[in-house]
Amino acid sequence: MNILSQDIKYLQGVGPNRALLFANELGIKTVGDLLGYYPYKYVDRSRIYQIREIDGSMPYVQLCGQIFSFDTVGEGRAKRLIAHFSDGTGSIDLVWFQGIKYAAKNYDCRKPYLVFGKPTVFNGHIQIAHPEVENAPEELREQARTTGNLFEDDAQLSTLNSNLSSLNFKPSYNTSEKMKRSGLNSAAIAKLTANMFKLLKEPLAETLPPYIVQQHHLMSYDEAVRNIHYPSSPEVLRHAQLRLKFEELFYVQLNILRYVKDRQLRYKGLIFNTIGDHFNGFFYNHLPFQLTEAQKRVIREIRADMKSGRQMNRLLQGDVGSGKTLVALMVALIAIDNGCQACIMAPTEILAEQHLATLRDFLGDLPVRVELLTGTVKGKKRTAVLEGLVRGDIHILVGTHAVIEDNVMFNKLGLVVIDEQHRFGVAQRAKLWMKNAVPPHVLVMTATPIPRTLAMTLYGDLDVSVIDELPPGRKPIRTVHMFDAHRQRIYELMNRELDLGRQIYIVYPLIQETESTEQREPSNRFEWPSRDGGRRSQKMDLKDLEAGFEEIQRAFPNHKVGKVHGKMKSADKDAEMQRFANHETHILVSTTVIEVGVNVPNASVMIIENAERFGLSQLHQLRGRVGRGADQSYCVLVTKFEIGETTRKRIQVMVDTTDGFEIAEEDLKLRGPGDLEGTQQSGMAFDLKIANLARDGQILNLARDTAQSVITSDPEEHNPQNDILWRHLRELRKSNINWGAIS
Ligand code: ADP
Ligand code: MG
């Protein structure tokens, strides 16, 4: 039997209890799973530093020296143990806040230790908090005995360093609190991976065809996977990472592109050749303004798809306010001109109703019938809509996900537009196709700009169009960062705008209690950003919102203040939103439920409390709620005075730019893809083990091109050289639920 498929419990050092933990906490069940559990960083043990070289900006370092004395300082929770540590070139403090007793008991004065940790500066003195401490290797101990001083000259140290090959790079593995409590910390996992490699004496089978490995000068799979756990040098590690990142991205792309090819083979597209009375009537007589160049281009791109004989699957990206609704309408009119119906799906009832009103408004007296179908359309009304659809005298159906229910049938559905796509998974999209013998064209619209690398992975099966231009005459929103303590100035701004008859949003974050797994350590040289390992619990707190609501009512006694949040009944929520839209309330205090698509052009101020708690894309979405009229609008990002460096940078990005794509790129860089909006719900392959979409754009391009050339050159999958690819792809699809979902 293949060792890789062996149950992990039989691996030396595991046993049934730990095997259970591995399975429950990390989904690791076999030796092969453990092999694929890569370290998240490496600790450079290949070199010993001298204390005089150290400063507070260095990553993890290894020192060798002796403790000269211990001090206990502080009381109660501030109590800490300090060990004064020197190597003859200088001295630093080792500090323990926890495990004081253990450290004091186990470490001796004047005994040589290898100490490992991240130096920081505290009160002008360098210290390492909670260092790893080990007995120094024999040769170092010998040295300490004979000279009493570890490093008298640099030559001594460099000989030593060259003898340290055995220490090398140590892998660090993520574990959970639960695992750590049972002794399965990173070091324990490292012991197990070491045991595993003792078993894996034979070279591991290659997972890419030799011609691809050669073409891109990749390391063999065997060498890569051994070195990803136990790298022999930084260069080798980089090479191993490249190989595994390429492979990972390659298979994701191969999966997507193969699916695209199959879809094209399997489904013909409706051919829309005609531009007729509906489109022209609207374009020449009802269009209230000039289309922007970007809108025109996008409509042309969509038109080309709809004539091509292939089913359109297109993603339309356009910033908030860029005029996507109008594009959707004009495309729907083309479908109608070609004897088909169109369906526009929105993520919420409010939005669906808003779309309905907007479309009817645009269409005026044109003979196009638009109807609404949501969960609240019931009884006779519902029956009428359903019948109208089947008969074909409803031309455009606007609705929520209620439209994908099986009993909703069309006469001839030719186009589906999905607005704000991230609430609809691939599976739901596919359900819509089934509503017509020939699957309808699909246009997915999003106002959440997605960086290219992410789009290629999340929506790699879709062609992409971009509206990169706002309609003319909009004043850019002015964004400012203010501290909590500036409350008075914020109120002044609010009063000024209220006096001008404008309205104001105030948004509070829901405080989500996060159940974190391992606290990730600060980066060292070879770390890549962690993916989101924290599992979010559903518990949410509205405390801030309630307190804020009361405070605002007190501070603005002459104005009406509304309140909405996700825990309200949907009818109450809608009613409250409607009151704000009708200008019956002046200030709306809310959570992010107002995030998507809501349109109240008279609102000119968006105040976001605890702005540090929001993702950049989310801040951008929220900001997009204002600036919809011709007047100057404002966005105020409120934070507490003390914020970290990353937060400061993130807020600054928002202040500096209103370009959604720039913001999305920055967000990806600052946070890593796991945290980005929409990635969890997308239902597309995403759980990357080693590649990082924020950093590995070039590798991704290479992987996509390579995958595309495999598909193009071997569409029938007859080339024996590629057998290994299809076999491996099948394996991956079995073990990755998301991968299976796209076909
Ligand atoms: P989004 O892309 O966020 O869905 P909307 O479709 O809601 O944007 O459009 C925002 C506003 O801009 C709407 O009031 C719409 O009527 C208006 N609009 C759309 N296209 C144009 C245009 N070419 N010129 C002027 N205003 C436009
Ligand atoms: Mg919209």
Characterize the structure shown.
The protein is of the alpha/beta class and 743 residues long. The protein has four domains: 1-42 and 174-202, Orthogonal Bundle (DNA polymerase, domain 1); 46-167, Nucleic acid-binding proteins (OB fold (Dihydrolipoamide Acetyltransferase, E2P)); 277-467, Rossmann fold (3-Layer(aba) Sandwich), CATH 3.40.50.300; 478-657, 3-Layer(aba) Sandwich (Rossmann fold). It has 26 helices and 24 strands. It has a seven-stranded mixed β-sheet. A seven-stranded parallel β-sheet has the order 12-13-11-14-15-10-16, sandwiched between helices. Strand 14 (413-419), helix 16 (426-433) and strand 15 form a beta-alpha-beta unit. Helix 9 crosses helix 10, helix 11 (277-286) runs antiparallel to helix 13 and helix 22 (645-656) packs antiparallel against helix 23 (660-671). The longest helix is centred in the middle third of the chain and has 33 residues, at 234-266. The relative contact order is 0.10. The model is unreliable at 512-539 and 674-685 (pLDDT under 50). Adenosine-5'-diphosphate binds at residues 289-292, 295, 318, 320-326, 447, 471, 599.
In terms of topology, how is this protein built?
Blueprint: H1 15-26, H2 31-35, E1 41-44, E2 61-73, E3 80-86, E4 91-96, H3 100-106, E5 112-117, E6 119-122, E7 125-129, E8 132-135, H4 138-147, H5 154-162, E9 169-172, H6 177-181, H7 186-199, H8 210-215, H9 221-229, H10 234-266, H11 277-286, H12 293-307, E10 313-318, H13 324-337, E11 341-345, H14 349-363, E12 370-373, H15 379-391, E13 396-399, E14 413-419, H16 426-433, E15 441-446, H17 452-458, E16 463-467, E17 478-483, H18 487-499, E18 503-507, E19 511-515, E20 535-541, H19 543-555, E21 561-564, H20 570-581, E22 587-590, E23 603-608, H21 616-623, E24 634-639, H22 645-656, H23 660-671, H24 697-713, H25 723-735, H26 737-740
Parallel strand pairs: 4-7, 10-15, 10-16, 11-13, 11-14, 12-13, 14-15, 17-24, 18-22, 18-23, 21-22, 23-24
Antiparallel strand pairs: 1-9, 2-3, 2-5, 3-4, 5-8, 6-7, 19-20
Helix pairs in contact: 9-10, 10-24, 11-13, 12-13, 22-23
This protein binds adenosine-5'-diphosphate (ADP) and magnesium ion (MG).
